[in-house]
Amino acid sequence: MSQQQSATMASAVNAVGEAASRQLNEFLTFRLGSEEYGIDILKVQEIRGYDNEAITQIANSPGFIKGVVNLRGIIVPIIDMRIKFRLGNAEYDQFTVVIILNVGGRVMGIVVDGVSDVISLDMEHVRPTPEFGSIIDTKYITGLGTIDERMLILVDIEKLMASEDMGLVNQALN
Amino acid sequence: MSTDLEQFYEVFFEESSELLAEMEACLLGLDVNSPSMEDLNAIFRAAHSIKGGAGTFGFTDMTEMTHMLETLLDRLRKGELKVRSEMVDAFLKAGDVIKDQLAGHRGDGAADPVVVKEVCDELQKLSEETADEGAVDPISRASQAVYLHEQSVVVATATPSAIEEFSDITVEETSATGNANHAVYQIEFSTTGLSDESKENLFFNLKQQGSLETCPESDEEVCRLHLTTSAPEEDVWEMLAFIVNPAHLKIEKCTQTEEYQAGTFAAATTEVVNNAAPHIEAKPSSTSSAGVDSAPYGFFPGAPAAPREQEFSQQTQSELAQSSNAADQINLAASSNLNAKAAAVETNSIRVSIGKVDQMINLVGELVITQAMLAQTASEIDPVLSEKLQSGMSHLERNTRDLQEAVMSIRMLPMSVVFSRYPRVVRDLAAKLNKKVELKTVGEGTELDKGLIEKIADPLTHLVRNSLDHGIELPEKRIAAGKLAKGTITLRAFQQGGSIVIEVGDDGAGLNREKILAKARDRGLPVRDDMPDQEVWMLIFEAGFSTADKVTDVSGRGVGMDVVKRNIQSMGGRVEVNSVFGVGTRITIRLPLTLAILDGLSVTVGDQMFIVPLTYITESLQPSENDIRTISGRGRVVQVRGEYLPVIALHEVFNIRPKSSEIKDGILVILDADGHKAAMLVDELVGQHQVVIKSLESNYRRVHGVSGATIMGDGKVALILDTTGLVMSTQ
């Protein structure tokens, strides 16, 4: 392949990539209490039903950490976001699901009130976050998206999960 | 083509490392007084294979080094020289240099050019100097020398380089890869369908092998070449077949010469000429018969080589005489090379990354869990209705178990991988310390997890060095003590239950109880005169503890034994010392079979299950109310066999609601972690399991009191207790 050709190809690839970032950001939306949140779909590994039986509690851990489960041979911590953010009643019903995330090489599950949809959002339609309104610290919120009449809170889940608040990594200990 | 070769580098590196190890093993096993031909051949083959590989990849430094080795080895093999211990030393040193060079090409350090030079010189000196000790009859040598003298060529400037000046062909041949064991190949192939580029590549590669000449007969379609190289015919063939259609490829071997050998020989014989003067005139006839008048011509089939014959025939008679001799040798070498190749094919193995194996082990672990879950579900069905299902389940169980065992065994390596490095360590160190030591290894076939194999090597080296330095006495001392002058260090490995036991034993001086106690007192360690031996011996593992009178570069600084102990403990193992003063010392290491599996006792507290590593449990008992005392109303101790042990109530540590908070309703598990004891209160003992250790930290964080997690038969996660941490928190 000549150099010129490869250069053309590369720029074509870039163009596609740019187009994707401009238009085709996909988000998994889920409910926490009455609020609706969205996270980058690429961070989601899978979605599982909530099974309290399978969870092994970990002593002396904060209440929002439900414990650990065996996910095909790896030990995965389960975090109840509703308890963490004191959103509604942490009830476990047939809609309660665990979203298994893969962020920064770590696998973890978050308990939410139910997943609703996977939506594509044009980043142009995302509004910056005002300095109030959400229970989640605004520094973890990338923006507010609107679909029809609904408002979607877009969360930088990677940043949130790695944060000290969550105490999921060793830095929080000691 | 050179870029194509890069993908084979790793294979070459691995193979060379193995060959070097093999060579070293052979050298160490070599009996200097009566060297076995088989060993010498094996060493030669190893050197030769490395040289071949290095040549292919263009690692000229390695080619040169191995070539030197080969030259000397070849003479030994032919019985022209006698094996001496300096030679073995030189070979070992050369092996080290090649190892360094190999590491250099790997991009990991480099060989010290000074050392390389030294070793080269040494090898050169050995192969030259010792020539006059050769096994050749002195008279015939003398007479050959006379002949040389008459021709008045080499004699005056008896060095190999002098020989090189002889004729064009010699210079040509030596320029490429060295100067021995060369063969001339006549190569003929069809160039139809070959691009200019690939032809150029081919010529380049061939040139790296040796000297290349294009025959005048070459035309557009058929290319005829002369290649003078030390590479075996198969290598040349492979290289060509890579590019040229093998159907149109013809390689013919013409002849071999050994200028270098002739050179050194001539060098040596010059001296003999003068010494053996009286014999000179007496034996002219034997010289001419050795001159092999027409025989050499037989080695030059085909017209294109004809002009060379003239040049050859002008060379010294001795050289020609040797070349016929050398022809046989080369054939021999070629055939042994073939054998080596055949052997390589037989060792059917593939290199797989550890990551893949671990993934497989994980998956199989999952399969076992799934199978257990299925079995449990199936057992709930009425067996009358599900006879086929039940028999299928039992098949599945057996198959999964077999599969798990098979997969686990992939990670297992024999102990010989580690043990094989110690003969060298012992040999070098014994020489340095003027001690006579024999190393015995038992149970090299015992298999151990690869991860453990890698980690155990350093502590073992330390123990072996210690045994040699402190254990084994000097020969005079040993004889005075009524022992054999030669000490013995025994390395033994065997499996005992779920653990692997490795012993390092010596028949040396043994540990001196009084000296250790005195030293411990000096250092302010809490010791008593009536301490049991076992505890006294364990003092040697204290940091900074040394009873050596003087510090040497081998040992005596007191750094090490504590590191040994720590390393072994980090592998989940234990160390024990047995010693009798004046008789010897034995250090025993116990390791779990693999890093990934742990023998554990499952206990429950409330509704939670925990795994306690079995190695820390000494006993479990049901306490009676009288045994339990409180200290200042809070801390509790329990009296077990006259000892008061602190009680760790697991439900308190983990904030779990227990079945009963009364100590007498629970069970006490007595733990012993590094000599610190404690009693752990649990609700129930469930059973003993081999559990697969999973990290909690990979996705979560460290949890106090927990060292890891595992997955139980029902698919649930159980936490493995950090016994040492728990016990220490009570001290």
The class by helix and strand makeup of chain A works out as alpha+beta
Radius of gyration of chain B: 35 Å
**Helical residues, percent of chain A:** 10-25%
Number of helices of chain A: 3
Structural classification of chain B: alpha+beta
Query: Biggest β-sheet of chain B: count, sense, barrel?
Result: 6 strands, mixed
List low-confidence stretches of chain B: 131-180, 256-321, 330-345
Total helical segments of chain B? 27
Determine the mean pLDDT of chain B. 72
Radius of gyration of chain A: 18 Å
Word description of this protein:
- In chain A, 18% of the residues lie in helices and 40% in strands.
- With 174 residues, chain A is an alpha+beta fold.
- In chain B, 48% of the residues lie in helices and 20% in strands.
- Chain B contains 27 helices and 22 strands.
- A six-stranded mixed sheet of chain B has the order 14-18-19-17-16-15. A five-stranded mixed sheet of chain B has the order 6-8-9-11-10. In chain B, strands 20-12-13-22-21 form a five-stranded mixed sheet.
- The model of chain B is unreliable at 131-180, 256-321 and 330-345 (pLDDT under 50).
- Chain A binds chain B through residues 53-54, 56-61, 67-70, 72-77, 106-108, 167-170, 172-173, and chain B through 362-363, 365-366, 369, 608, 653-656, 694-706, 709, 711, 715-719.
